[in-house]
Amino acid sequence: MGDLDLSFIQDLENRPHVKVIEPEEVPVIDFFTSSHGDTKEIVSEIGNACRKWGFFQVINHGVPLELSKRMAKMAKEFFDQPIEEKKKVKRDEGNSMGYHDSEHTKNVRDWKEVFDFSLEDPRLVPAMDNLDDQELRTISNRWPQYPNEFRKACQEYSREVEKLGYRLLKLVSLSLGLPANRLNGFFIDQTSLCRINHYPPCPNPNLALGVGRHKDFSALTVLAQDDVGGLEIRRKSDGEWIPVKPIPDAFIVNVGDIIQVWSNDTYESVEHRVVVNTEKERFSIPVLLLPAHHVNIEPLEELLNEQNPSKYQRYNWGKFYASRIRGDYKKRDVENIQIHHLKKQHP
């Protein structure tokens, strides 16, 4: 399999070592242990977690704790502002980056507000009103004037998490029996984004969800959650909703639709949701790793054979993404396109 460079883990000897939770919980993968052992061990752990759960947590991962704390502080300061201030950077049909809440999308049952920004700024995406041709448009991030350090904190934090995400992609690739860099080329001129979620206390938590059940359309999602909790995943073995317990300074990682297609269903994008409560606000910050707009998504040919033929039609990522964004604003007669719509029918 070859050695994977794990030198990114910094000063681990000086970090407090985190206790791993019980095995029946979502798997926890410790990069401290893996950095002192065989690369095959961590590759095997990630492969098993992707097959059984589609989710895992990583600890001792090398992302500086001070950046995470600063990011959490900036997030709270931004969302604590009056709604009139937040709306100065609200998103719209022409640009999906910026602030929005459930009141301004079709997902009116979601009890949350959000700020989105792209890791590449500006970036090219297909024009939403011209999905049948190759017309592109440029979108740029919308940054608020306050907090003063908000933009800098967002950019520094997301770049560090992005580095972790790409290291995880290499490990996922190795776990599929592929070269570590097999997926790298898809992310040149990437469309990856970071989302800051704020879930206020809800007076009627039985009537709403922070986010309804869904699957991520990303390749991988790398998420930080605070100590309030609320994320639940649908366990593959029995369909039960399982809470993901907060672990200090951990990241939650989940397989998205793109890896499900690339792996030809070896790994599955798993449903998850967020529940809310009456007493405490909650923050979470996912970084969604997304390929370039021109990339066509289809099962990787190295994983296919007569016994395992391709299960998906090819789709263009940029047009798929633009179609999903358009569906957030315009009522449509059909459901937003999902990867199960692209399944091939085999005899």
TrEMBL record:
Span of domain Fe2OG dioxygenase: 190-291
Pfam families: 2OG-FeII_Oxy, DIOX_N
Coiled-coil region: none
Keyword Oxidoreductase: yes
Keywords linked to the UniProt accession: Iron, Metal-binding, Oxidoreductase
GO molecular function: metal ion binding; oxidoreductase activity
The keyword Protein transport is assigned to this record: no
InterPro entries: DIOX_N, IPNS-like_FE2OG_OXY, IPNS-like_sf, Iron_ascorbate_oxido_reductase, Oxoglu/Fe-dep_dioxygenase_dom
Record-stated family: Belongs to the iron/ascorbate-dependent oxidoreductase family.
Protein name (Swiss-Prot/TrEMBL): Oxidoreductase family protein
